Amino acid sequence: xxxxVNFIFPYQNTIxxxxxxxxIRKCENEVYFESAQGDRLSLRSGxxxxxIYSICMMPELTKGAVIRCxxxxxxxxxxxxxxx
Length: 84
What we know:
Layout: E1 6-10, H1 17-24, E2 31-34, E3 40-42, H2 46-56, E4 66-70, H3 72-78
Antiparallel strand pairs: 1-4, 2-3, 2-4
């Protein structure tokens, strides 16, 4: 059995959040927003998406946050959002 690999992308407030959340629906696995304080939100959840919109209105809360996904398929979907 092939072991899935985790990918971690630093969250940036310049990301087009609505487009990102729409593409997350195409992912095969869970995708998480993880705060620097250790909080974790599943971005495939409608309630969590509402919360992430609220959090992003206060950039100080996203400092040090990351987006975590699993699997090559999901990485390919999300990677374009995190290129510099």
